[in-house]
Amino acid sequence: DAGVTQSPTHLIKTRGQQVTLRCSPKSGHDTVSWYQQALGQGPQFIFQYYEEEERQRGNFPDRFSGHQFPNYSSELNVNALLLGDSALYLCASSYGQGMVVGELFFGEGSRLTVL
Amino acid sequence: DQQVKQNSPSLSVQEGRISILNCDYTNSMFDYFLWYKKYPAEGPTFLISISSIKDKNEDGRFTVFLNKSAKHLSLHIVPSQPGDSAVYFCAASRRQFYFGTGTSLTVIP
User: Fold this and answer.
1) A40 pLDDT more than 90
2) Strand B10-14 relative to strand B103-108, pairing
3) Which residues of A touch B93 (CB under 8 A)?
4) pLDDT tens per residue across span B45-101
């Protein structure tokens, strides 16, 4: 039973570029959430996708966008990268839209460095 | 706006003793609380949770206590083992999760 998988694991970009991160949820899960974890901080909620729509959003600018595909996998896109976007981006999957019905299952994350 | 706070960045405990990790929150509307453990180069993994209608939940060596009047959550690990050494995040939720900044636990053999 595959858990949550994320790609790439590490990447380096320069300011102003765009990046796409990918996530496949745990088998049986239909909801994907994205989190940003800056160094020394806890994960910060970016947004949640269910049924291919963004259902909830945290306090992140429109430069952060996402998508969910019919197979429940998801992408996180960040445009016009800033130095402050350097962080570990975590994908978490769960079952059930919007409401907390159980714990989140996290992937290992994608480490983004913006130079 | 940090709604969940872990004021102790680190904690060291001798093997076999009790580890107590603390967490405070500000939003009385939170209805579910969780603890996650994170090893280096891995994503956080779920450890234990508690609903706001309860004040204690136990799972083996791990017990979570909830004091709603004080808006305080704690995780007790008894006995502590070297493999428990990790960063522990508390999280609170009401439709979305809010995480604390983490406490790095070191269990000394």
Assistant:
1) no
2) parallel
3) 100
4) 999 999 999 999 999 999 999 999 999 999 999 999 999 999 999 999 887 889 999
Q: Distance from B49 to chain A by nearest Cα, in Å? A: 8
| A79, pLDDT greater than 70 | yes
SS3 of residue B97 by DSSP: strand
Structure tokens at B25: 């929150």
Pairing of strands A74-78, A64-68: antiparallel
The DSSP code for B82 is: G
Report whether A20 contacts A34 (CB < 8 A). Answer: no
Nearest to B102 among A42, A107, A108 (CB): A42
- Alpha carbon distance A19, A8 (integer Å): 11
Which two three-digit tokens encode residue B56? 């204690």
Chain B residues with at least one Cβ partner in A under 8 Å: 4, 6, 31-32, 34, 36, 41-46, 49, 89, 91, 93-102
Whole-number pLDDT of residue A101? 52
DSSP conformational letter for A26: P
| Tokens linked to A96 | 């059930």
Q: Which of B29, B30, B25 is nearest to B71 (CA)?
A: B25
